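hi support,

uploading two proteins for the ticket. first:
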Amino acid sequence: MMGEREENGIPLNSTKLKLGEGLWSIGEQTGVVGILNVTPDSFSDGGEYADVELAVLKGKDLADQGADIVDIGGESTRPGYEEVSIDEEISRVVPVISALSTQESFPPISIDTTKLDVARASLDAGAGIVNDVWGFVRDPEMAGLVAEHKASCILMHNARLGWRSNSILDSIKRFWEESILRAEKAGVEEDRIILDPGIGFTDTRDQDMAILRGLSELRAFGFPLMIGASRKRITGVPMNLSLKDRLESTLATSAFAAAVGVDFVRVHDVRENVRAVRMMDMIRKK
């Protein structure tokens, strides 16, 4: 966890994470990040919430189901996705963020984007977290924007930028070191950083499985950890499950993550995953 620093620069021993303007107590329970895709082409729910009114209703529903963070995305990052323009992405996400951020007691809002201008518009509209699937590596200016707004960030390892080592876990750690260095040089506070190992942004399902098996080691890296396996190929391919049949396998990844101390799970089915991780949290507590 965050706090005092070892020689390798990894912070340890803090108990609080800043999420936008709020605080999250590390280790008390597993946080659930609800996915809200306002896109026509996301792999699982593309087109379902492309309408602003429907998206706002879905965001409220995610909060009612127990989401601790609502993660809003306006561009799909599925394999083979087509990039949309900055203006188009802003037009998709900003009205939704503006409407939800004014709701009383609404959880922190994260903007899932790779574009600097989209992140800026979203932070101005009320988001408090930037979820960058390139981990500040592809666009280092994103780190300065996050620092300027005193926002929090989710820095994802992305194997599409190449592996740093023959060892999957070592490669992820090296990527994170680069991401964290960029963040800290830009002035992002270390207690505003969450790390994501990038399940599904790998080359094979064996690599995804290696990440899941290595979650304890990755959590020991020293920062709060989030995983996003919900409905992805790792929850379907091993048992030949279609998208609509991946709830139980997703719940298994969430429960396992909670059991080994992962701090957040990013999911589509919030209510079911809340129940799964809360039960695991209770089992773990002595």
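and the second one:
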Amino acid sequence: MTKAPDAFLGGRLRLHQPARGAHRAGTDAVLLARLLIPAPEDRLCDVGAATGAVGLACAALVPGLRPTLVERDPDLAAQARTNAALNGIDARVIEADVLAPATDRRAAGLMPDSFDVVLTNPPYFSAGHHRASPHPGRAAAHTFAGDASGEALDAWIRTCTAILRPGGRLGLIHRADVLAECLQTLRGRYGGLAIRPVHPRAEAPAIRILISAVKGSRAALRLQPPLILHGPDGAFTREAAELHGVPPCC
């Protein structure tokens, strides 16, 4: 029997996802989808889309938005197409490797300066720097090939920058301990950075950072108030519940 799709955003979006043990979209995808508010006419691209959670969530929140989803894995790309059809969203899915040479990306349909908004959740680790998941799909989603994580992240952001028009907006989510590397790779390419740390609880260190930036801008960096996900009882805080589209516990 085919498993029922997962409900996102309080049921506004339904997603078929890989079996448990593989990489499955969750809070990170919700936070990234909520980071920037595109206009319906904006050309939005979800880079490293997997099953399409981020780009499709944006379309569920902004009626009329037609997102482009970029995913290198053919099975995940096929699932993204299925999810777009399931939700009645007119999405374009491009099978392309973000780290491939520019000529290969263009041949796949990723053209320079072609998007107003780019959202991305880069792999969080480099091979050899953490214990990879035994599940190939989960390992591929979380891990850059090779050992030079800074170089891989720079190449990933370079592609995002290439397809983003001048003055376009970039949104990304990453591990909090990689903030320095993120700032380094954005330097000279973006301005107007806004950084928001994400904490699991008020007393705990940040585990994620949300960064928005404007291509070619010279505006100053802003550090935003933290986002706290869970209260003392373990339930979502009011803000986290609103972002996920679910009722707060109290």
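thanks. also noticed: Residues 127-148 have pLDDT under 50 and may be disordered.
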